[in-house]
Amino acid sequence: MQSKIIGTVLPVLEVSLDAGDTIVAAPGEFSWMTEGVQLNTTAMTAGAKGILGVLGRAVSGGGLFMTEYTAPHGNGLVGFAAKIPGQIVPVDVQPGRGYMIHRDGFLCATAGVELNVGFQRGLGAGIFGGNGFVLQKLSGTCSAWVELGGEIVIYDLKPGESIQAHPGHVGMFEESVNFDIRIMQGITNALFGGDGLFLAHLTGPGRVWLQTLTLPNLAHAIQPYVVASTRETAQAGIAGGVAGAVMKNFFGGQ
To answer: How far is Cα of residue 107 from the mean position of the Cα atoms in its chain?
Structure first.
């Protein structure tokens, strides 16, 4: 199996499959593939050995079902494009060397991947779309690819060394890192600081990947344009309806 990442702002991962190779991803993640690739959508993959494993993977953002891509006769190719501007990060997953990733971060992995809930915390209504804060645990024995938003800032934390971040900017970290979410100290900071009520605390040892672009921030940035576009479409529809009625009455009266 060979892989390459093409592009910068909106990259795509291309994986060349040999006979016997398998790539696991959520349904609908792939962007293109050759005719020699076969799909098998199943719930019993990515480490799920029962209904509890399937439900745990679904809660973490992986979905009830996953799709396995194989090339029985060899020479197959599958492409996975990034969903938002950012980067695709390859990671080597081994027993005792797993990763915690944000709920939308898993792109795909080779056979042997295990996905489950790694961290879950309810942060109140309206936070993260009302879904609380969830991290996926990426473990097993495999090669995996993770999608992170915007630019990536990496910190190698020494034992006892800590960093605080807005929860949405936590893209991925090694499982050796201790992670917790705490309420912002100071009532004035929490209510009027504009930085949210919660902070993520990460303490080493281990590597941390912080992402500069979060989905809530992206949605907030484009919301005025979506609203404006919807309003303009509605106005155009009303104007078109009025014009059509006038023309109908005009020609109908001739």
So the answer is: 7
Phi/psi-derived region of residue 105, left when phi > 0, alpha when psi is between -120 and 50, beta in every other case: alpha
Residue 190 CA, chain-centre distance (Å), reads 27
Tens of pLDDT, residues 153-174: 999 999 999 999 988 899 999 9
d(CA 33, CA 58): 25
Least Cα distance to 22 among 108, 111, 145, 93 occurs for 111
With the C-alpha atoms ordered 240, 246, 249, 252, is the resulting torsion angle positive or negative? negative
pLDDT tens, position by position, 26-68:
877 889 999 989 998 887 566 566 566 666 656 656 666 889 9
Q: What is the C-alpha radius of gyration for the chain, rounded to an integer number of angstroms?
A: 23
b/e code 76-103 from CB counts within 10 Å (16+ = b): bbbebbbebebbbbebebeeeebbbbbb
In this structure, which CATH number among 3.60.160.10, 3.40.605.10, 1.10.150.130, 3.30.470.30 belongs to the domain 2-213?
3.60.160.10
Sheet holding 76-81, edge to edge: 2-6, 12-17, 76-81, 32-33
Phi, psi of 129 (to 5 degrees): 70, 20
**What does DSSP say about strands 206-211 and 152-157: parallel, antiparallel, or unpaired?**
antiparallel
Contact 134, 165 (CB under 8 A): no
For the chain, give every domain's residue range: 2-213, 224-254
